Amino acid sequence: MVKIGYTMMCEQASPRELVRDVVAAERVGFDFAVISDHYFPWLVEQGHSPYAWSVLGAAAQATERIPLMTYVTCPTFRYHPAVIAQKAATVALLSEGRFSLGLGAGENLNEHVVGGGWPGADVRHERLREAVEIIRDLWDGEYVNYRGKHFEVESAKVWDLPEKTPDIGIAVSGAQSCRLAGELGDLMIAVEPEAELGELFDAAGGAGKPRIGQQPLSYGEDAEAAMTRAHEQFRWFGGGWKVNAELPGPAAFAAASSYVRPEDVGESIPCGGSVDDVIEACRPFIDAGFTHLALVQIGGDQQQPYLDWAASRLLPALREAFG
């Protein structure tokens, strides 16, 4: 059975609201929850971007059963991988083993803030490979010294480790990242329902491992208002990750999406109250072999109506369609 997840979208809600909403998502029956890890929102209209790791600590204490995961953290610019190893271990302890670490090569939007420029994708993947190696070494519980092309670790040790270390998911968008994920990851993460990504992941060692996708939607009884909200806050989504990873800030995303019309957004994101529209939007992920699918409700102030609808109609329908 495909597992259906809830997304804590840090770009559209305050930290207290994010924790409140994931507690409600657990209560209505979502199978897992993921959280974005941004320094900036995609667009000014979204209006938020709290520190995801503080939210995760609070969520771990406020919830009881729902698995949590970063979707995704870049462990190579804003954060040093040694720091990621420590804080991921801490969240795993706080959540009593309910945490998975989703990692990716990052986006200029969030990582430029520490300076040092924004290298090409090949370099970003080199850095990600080293980061995963460092994190796994530190989770062995011994002192680690590491001398890589991009990172150094000097006599580091993580003192508080969970009994079972978290699974590591790696975001993919092409052959290079799929190879890295298949070799070093426990899970594949992708936002595009392309069967080829799973095939490349399998070929690199990922066969049989879970794969997690993400689908936005804009629930509302007024379909026109729901589409207007999706356009206002999510018109950047159609740019694709090869473009989105390169743009440096919300102003750039606003410019890049300035000619996107509400109806363009409505063609790729289900808007309104139709369960069937959401099922059809999700179906390509299921057909491509995804085992988990995290839904994003657009609009931080729209979570409770969405959660009520999900409990009564959406989750039962998705489980019947993809069970």
How would you describe the overall organization of this protein?
- With 323 residues, this protein is an alpha/beta fold.
- It has a single domain, classed as TIM Barrel, CATH 3.20.20.
- Helix content is 45%, strand content 16%.
- The chain has 13 helices and eleven strands.
- It has helices at residues 15-28, 52-62, 81-94, 108-111, 121-138, 175-184, 195-206, 223-234, 241-244, 250-256, 262-268, 275-287, 303-322; strands spanning 3-8, 32-35, 68-70, 99-103, 144-147, 152-156, 168-171, 187-189, 211-219, 271-272, 292-297.
- The strands form two sheets. It has an eight-stranded parallel beta barrel with strand order 1-2-3-4-7-8-9-11, surrounded by eight helices. A two-stranded antiparallel ribbon has the order 5-6.
- Helix 7 (195-206) links the parallel strand 8 (187-189) and strand 9 (211-219).
- Helix 8 (223-234) packs across helix 11 (262-268).
- The radius of gyration is 19 Å and the shape is globular.
- The protein starts with a strand and ends with a helix.
- The model has no long low-confidence stretch (mean pLDDT 97).
